[in-house]
Structure formats: C-alpha cells, structure tokens
Write a structure and sequence with these properties.
The strands form 4 sheets. The protein has a 3-stranded antiparallel β-sheet, with no helix packed on it. Strands 2-3-4 form a 3-stranded antiparallel β-sheet, with no helix packed on it. It has a 3-stranded antiparallel β-sheet with strand order 5-8-9, with no helix packed on it. The longest helix has 33 residues. It folds into 2 domains: 43 residues; 125 residues, Rieske Iron-sulfur Protein. By secondary structure, it is α+β, with helices and mostly antiparallel strands. Helices cover 17% and strands 32% of the residues. The chain contains 1 helix and 11 strands; from the N terminus they run αβββββββββββ.
Length: 190
C-alpha cells in the first residue's frame, strides 16, 4: 500500500458527501421559514388610499379646515385603521392636505380654531396660523415655518385622489422643503 498517495480517503469522501447532503436538506427545510418570516418587511407598501366623506367643495382658499378621517395603515405584519386629523386648504387649484405633525420633533400642531371653525391667524400677532406647543414652531396657513422657528421644513402633505363619487381619498405623506413648499404632486381640482 502506498502511504504517500495524495487522494481523497474514503472517510473524507463520506464526510464531504454527508455534510453536503445535510447542509442541502437543512437549507431546504429552513429557507421557506426564513422567507415567510421576513416577507412582510420586504413587501412594498400597498399604496392604499383611505376613503373619506369630504368633497372638494368643503374647502376654500382663505383658511385651512381641520378634518378627521380613518387612515388605513399596512405596516409589516400589522394592518389597521387609525383615526387621524389633518388641515386642508386649496392652493393653486389643488388641495394641500397637511399633516398635523410638527417637522421639528413630531409634536401635534394646533391650528387657529375656535371649536371646529377655522378663524383668522391668531399666533405671532396674527401672522401665523399653526403653532407647535412643544418648542414654539410657527407656520403660516400653507404649513410653511417662520424663519425663526425650530421646525426645519414645512408640514408634510398627503397624497390624494378624487374618487368617481366626488369624495377625496387620502394616501401617504410627501415631505416638503422650504424651497419647494408650493410643489404639490397631487391632481388639480376646481
């Protein structure tokens, strides 16, 4: 028998074959589990729009109107309808559906309201319409912060579409910058 033979021994061969077979069978069993566990994370958002009872005629170009709706949210494994409130104003033949969340630290901004009625701007000596009670950010009627506000950018807008029955359907939020505050990707309304 040749001791210096350079080849694969029977023991090494069986070790490789059995190890490879075990690894293949293990991955065949585990891969569906891993895929199903991480599937909701990789699944794109449905782009769901939430139905409201609002009509375009409910809003004007003078002052934002405070309205509420039930927003459908798909978040990985969770799917839920959550109450939400927004401020809506017409600007350049489009609706600006503005988030109530301050862009500084996420607090809930207050609009110039008396009860449920919109009133003239009442903050900063009648110059600003929105006020964030957390750190004092002030915004005009279009959700643009004053230069001295800690808020870094305007209030976010919501996407929307007009349904065949004339009601508004609300989608996801779209961020704005101070330079593009009046850029509105939404459809024109009368």
């Amino acid at each position: 028998m040749d001791v210096n033979r350079k080849g694969l021994t029977r023991r090494q061969f069986l070790t490789y074959v059995l190890g490879g077979t075990g690894a293949f069978m293990g991955s065949a069993v585990l891969s569906p589990l891993v895929v199903s566990a991480f599937d909701p994370i990789h699944r794109g958002s449905s782009g769901a729009f939430s139905k409201t009872t609002w009509k375009v005629s409910d809003f004007n170009e003078q002052l934002p109107t405070h309205v509420t709706f039930s927003q459908h949210i798909d978040d990985a494994w969770n799917s839920q309808d959550k109450p939400n409130d927004v401020f809506v104003i017409k600007y350049q033949q489009k609706l600006m559906i503005m988030s109530h969340t301050c862009t500084h630290l996420g607090c809930h901004v207050n609009g110039s309201l008396q009860g449920d009625k919109s009133v003239a701007p009442q903050y900063n000596n009648g110059k600003d319409w929105f006020f964030c009670p957390c750190h004092g950010s002030l915004y005009n009627i279009y959700g643009v912060p004053t230069p001295t506000s800690p808020a870094p950018r305007p209030l976010d807008l919501y996407e929307y579409r007009v349904a065949s029955d004339g009601t508004i359907e609300v989608g996801a939020t779209v961020g704005r910058t101070n330079n593009t505050w009046n850029t509105n990707p939404n459809p024109t309304v009368s």
